[in-house]
Amino acid sequence: MPGQLAAPKTLCILRLSAIGDACHAVAMVQQIQKQYPDIKITWVIGKVEAMLLDKLPGVEFVVFDKSAGLSGYRQLSQAFKGRKFDVLLHMQVALRASLASLCIPATTKIGFDRQRAKEGQWLFTNKRVEPLEQPHVLDGFLGFAQAIGVNVEKPTWNMPLSDEDLLWVSEKIATDKPIAVISPAASKVERNWHVEGYSKTADHLSALGFQVVLCGGPTTVETLLAQQIESQSQHTLCNLVGQTTLTQLLSVLKLAHLVIAPDTGPAHMAVTVGTPVIGLYAHSNPHRTGPYYYQHYVVSCYQHNVQQQYGKPLAKLPWGIRAKGKLLMNGISVAQVKDKIRQLIADHYPEMVGSE
Fold first, then answer.
1. Which of 54, 116, 119, 216 is positioned for an S-S bond with 241, CB 3.0–4.6 A?
2. Cβ contacts of residue 187 below 8 Å, gap of 6+?
3. Band of the pLDDT at 326, cuts 50, 70, 90?
4. What is the pLDDT of residues 205-222, one digit of tens each?
5. Class assignment of domain 163-355?
6. What span, in angstroms and rounded, lies between the C-alpha atoms of 193 and 270?
7. Do residues 60 and 42 make contact, with C-beta atoms less than 8 angstroms apart?
């Protein structure tokens, strides 16, 4: 039942994960706040995502621990005891999120349109957003703002950057060179490019005059990948993998001049702070999940992969269909990434072109 609602006074957002999607949701939240400055917003969010966003202006965060099992649902019910929202924006299709929505009292519960309401999400809502043809995830989220009467504009972000974090980063990196960040690891190992590609790209950036900074989380996979990139590089890299909080990482990305990353949260974090991104894609459609404002810098073999696997042109395949395989990222060449670096520098830092 698409259509617009009157402006709600109290609003709850249910979007638990992941980092990139939470960043997309921030743009929607801030458009709602712009049009409805008096609205009271509560956001039910995952633990990790809350670490990045808990200082976001004008939003009350309620953390849902999906690993806590039944006690997580009981805690959520207790958090909302005696409360009722005008509207719930149910923005996650996973069944665990739909079960969590049962713990959130709201007069109107808005979910995705029937085509996108996977895992039976439509059973847990009483209103749906307008359907969209082949949307980017962020555009899909903006549909929720439209459903409550917001006149959607070009997405912008006001992220919670602190002077303390910015100072920590500037002291940690301590360089007068332009900064290029490589965030090499995604949540799934098969989305990672190979060590040789990253190390050769790091050397290329270093030769152009950049200080290359490696970023990522504290997992063993990420730590080992960064160490291997360092060992194969001919230049000195600044390795901050596992050494930053999420807010410190956001500050690293803010101070950077460019970011190179596969399909992972830091790529979308960089977009929120206006840093251009070269995205590396092989499994998912970058037109759906790529860096929102930097699609033209994406290096992708996704289309080739899905067409080869399913035997159909991309236009005849379902929107968002994924390619499968552990070695698909090998289809991205160092030469392709270098070409995007050249293009990005020419577009954003023309004063550096002569140094190439």
1. 216
2. 18, 264, 265
3. very high
4. 999 999 999 999 999 999
5. alpha beta
6. 19
7. yes
In this prediction, residue 4 has a pLDDT band, given cuts at 50, 70 and 90, of low
Angle between helices 265-272 and 246-255 (to 10 degrees): 60
Amino acid at the residue 219? T
C-alpha 84/C-alpha 62 separation (Å) is 15
Arch. (CATH architecture) of 10-147: 3-Layer(aba) Sandwich (3.40)
Q: Is the predicted pLDDT of residue 29 greater than 50, yes or no?
A: yes
The owner of tokens 């992941």 is 18
**Beta-bridge mates of residue 11:** 41, 87
- Dihedral in degrees, nearest 10, Cα atoms 163, 169, 172, 174: -90
Q: Positive or negative CA dihedral for 226, 187, 273, 59?
A: negative
CA atoms of 90 and 131, how far apart (whole Å): 15
The reported pLDDT for the residue numbered 7 is 83
CA pair distance 12, 30, nearest whole angstrom: 14
292 by DSSP, 3-state: which? coil
Please report where in the chains the tokens 């039942």 appear, as a residue. 1
Query: In whole angstroms, what is the distance from residue 25 CA to residue 37 CA?
Result: 17
| Buried-state track 8-23, b at ≥16 Cβ within 10 A, e below 16 | bebbbbbbbbbbbbbb
Provide the residue ranges of all domains of the chain, joining segments of one domain with +: 10-147, 163-355
pLDDT digits (tens, 9 = 90+) for 100-115: 999 999 999 999 999 9
**CATH fold match for the domains 10-147 and 163-355:** yes
